[in-house]
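Quick review question:
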């Protein structure tokens, strides 16, 4: 089953993705993670994506669809995927539909995480990452050595700075929110999930909406 996790930046998609992926027995495709790894490794993809990412702007659709196509056609994703952070524009939704169609598959469900902007800003301001591994942490001051012993330091993602967060929320409203209407207009299986609550509560809500959809 292919599940699209949809929602504002900071809605908890990245927290829920591994939990849902494990429960459903499919791997995660998180375009933000793929891009951040490329930036850290200094690959051509990373060099192309970095400035848009730092500003909180979107990376071009063609770049994203290249990542998605390569991943979904690979053996690793043969049983399905939890898509985290993609799709973010209508052209990406159209492209995903084409890629899946070529593979004889389709989106099984779109889980739309609902949360208001104030809660987003609160969550993001407490979010740090290990500058070596990219692993997320909350509840530590910036500059703390990474608790996982990687030798890295906990820092704020550039795109988690307040200015970039404002940009990301504006981008979400202008370019990403219309994706939900696009899916609804096509009769896709869109389920809204209240994203406020404990991590466990939100996982349970998300899973119960996926179960309602059945498993192709
Ligand atoms: P995320 O970790 O999903 O918040 O993604 C971090 C950043 O990577 C975004 O702010 C964008 O700059 C870029 N990015 C990730 N996924 C996409 C996507 N599907 N479309 C465009 N840009 C993306």
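Suggested answer, residue by residue:
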């Amino acid at each position: 089953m292919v599940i699209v996790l949809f929602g504002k930046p900071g809605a908890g998609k990245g927290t829920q993705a591994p939990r849902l992926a494990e429960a459903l027995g499919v791997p995660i495709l998180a375009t933000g993670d793929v891009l951040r790894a490329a930036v850290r490794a200094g690959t051509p993809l990373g060099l192309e994506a970095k400035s848009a990412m730092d500003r909180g702007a979107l990376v071009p659709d063609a770049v994203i669809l290249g990542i998605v196509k390569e991943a979904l056609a690979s053996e690793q994703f043969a049983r399905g995927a939890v898509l985290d952070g993609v799709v973010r524009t209508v052209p990406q939704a159209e492209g995903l539909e084409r890629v899946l169609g070529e593979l004889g598959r389709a989106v099984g469900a779109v889980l739309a995480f609902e949360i208001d902007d104030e809660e987003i800003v609160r969550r993001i301001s407490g979010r740090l990452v290990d500058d070596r591994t990219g692993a997320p942490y909350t509840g530590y001051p910036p500059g703390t050595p990474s608790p996982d012993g990687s030798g890295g330091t906990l820092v704020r993602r550039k795109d988690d700075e307040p200015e970039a967060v404002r940009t990301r929320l504006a981008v979400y409203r202008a370019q990403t929110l219309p994706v939900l209407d696009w899916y609804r207009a096509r009769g896709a299986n869109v389920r809204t999930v209240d994203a406020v609550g404990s991590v466990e509560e939100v996982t349970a809500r998300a899973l119960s909406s996926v179960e309602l959809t059945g498993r192709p």
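Why it works: The helical segments are 13-24, 31-41, 44-55, 61-72, 90-102, 117-125, 162-185, 199-213. The chain has a mean pLDDT of 93.
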